[in-house]
Amino acid sequence: MGKNISFLCLVFLSSVVLWQGMADAELSGYAIPRITSDCYYDDNIYFASSDVISDFVTRVAPGVEAGLSFNTWNLDLDYELQQVFFYHQSARNSLNHFLDLDGWLDLSHDWKVSIEDSFIHSKDPVQISKSIGAISYEDLKYDYNEANVKLFRSFNDKGRAEIGYKNMFFKNHSSIGADTVNHFPYMELRYWLRPQYGIGMETGANMGLFDTSDDFTEPRGALAFFYRLDLDTTLNVRGAVASMNFSGETPDYDTYDFTVGLTHAFNQSTGFTIGGGYYFQTRLHHAGLDNYDGVSWNATFWRHTNHYSLKIEISKGYDEVYFDGENLGFSSCYVLGGEVEYAILDRLHLSLESYYRDDTFPYAGGWDEKIRERTWNADLELYWQLNSWLETGISLSHWHRDANDPDYEYLDNRAMLTLRLSKEFDW
To answer: pLDDT tens-digit profile of 73-83?
Structure first.
């Protein structure tokens, strides 16, 4: 169902854009064909918690990035075909597909429609390591897609309104089926009633369809108030409620979340946000399980210049982890991490990203036992643009998870050398 809806949305928007483009006299576009070759060493190709297997891997990937645009619309796509060869574990050899699509179309009365879609057909767990969790990777082969279609408008300096639909599906083609579909229609509004006072409203319904666990529907709603202390500082107060309703025997629950936050911009390139609050979860239908509550807080700092960009964040609160291979549910968690990109020279760039996350799932172990996971990932990339058509680089990656249940643990490291040839054509 989700796959069909995403495909129809893509066909519809693409048809509208191309039809109007044929009718318009002025049209611009670009195409960047490329071919990429990666050679890397992976010390745990199956993300296994024990009896790990390492291997040397080569990837050859032709691809193209292309786009068409007019003053009222734009369409960009990126496709890559990836052939993967394992030196020892040849059974893992695969032909993978990656497709990203972005487009927007101006409508009348300041309204605009846009679509984003990202599709993966692969055997590589790294592509979905942040979304799918510690599932059985030994026989992994999957389709994964995320899409977002939205209709929105801007009220200039007074705010913005948005109506949208998000969809995700994970189709597992391995012998252990774990298919997942997510539907999420939503509406958002932020409007400044006066220069100093504003209001925000959010509503939506998060729906999950699963092969191996209970389906659910989760209506959500939130109301926020904003107050500008000055031109660079905004105070916000937000209250949110969500009601989780399962189709089977899994106990339902409500979640209430109240926060107060402050955003300040030192200038156009530097700023921070801080906030704190309290959340609590109430079990319904006399489930016989304890309620869960706690203090939440967050802090984020960012800076962007011509030479580098930096983002640092730390947060504590709750999450709902249903759309992955673990499906462990409600989580009390905290996150610490950051990202930096730095132009060492005009053609030499460094990128570093690292995050640590600590999750406690209070009802995941048969609804009467906590499961705790501590996950850390780090990625370092150094790329050198040798000339207008040739780029090379090295990257190091680390993924590590500890848990009180060894089934959820893994440790994986990669070291990769990349060479890419590309050429841009404009018209």
So the answer is: 999 999 999 99
